[in-house]
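> Could you send the Major facilitator superfamily (MFS) profile domain-containing protein prediction when you get a chance?

Sure thing. Input:
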Amino acid sequence: MFVVLAIVFAILGGSLFDVYETSDHDVTVVFYAISLFLMNLGPNTITFMLPAELFETKNRGTCYGIAAASGKLGAILVQIAIKRIRAGGTDKKPLAGLLLFLVPVMLMGALIAAIWIPEVQYPYGRVREYSKFDNRSLESIAEDPRKDQKVGFRAKMRKWLHLQD
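Output:
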């Protein structure tokens, strides 16, 4: 969904640059509505679906709180970043520049989601063996934290490169 949002923001920002001081905003309005729909369908919804899929019932409420707080903190940080770096420029087309600024942000979100969010859709398939956490004691984790690592960037790179320990 992040990649689709990046494409939509690129089209939206580009179309707004072209029609900024005209009355031909049909494409811009349609893609703006699509971007709002996709934002609520994708990143906003997944924030509350992942805790339900990944955590036990007794921990789920805490994870919902962490997810909600992270979303609010992200919104505050984006507002501060936009003010500091003057995203969108200082010319008369600041909204178009801001929408184009969001394209790499969405692609970074896609990369982070691909690397760190474990697969939950196929709980009994082959994908599950690479996305579950092992039951290891704290002592064995302290001795060798990377032993049998199945999630995270390092584990995925080792699998993609077909490396063995």
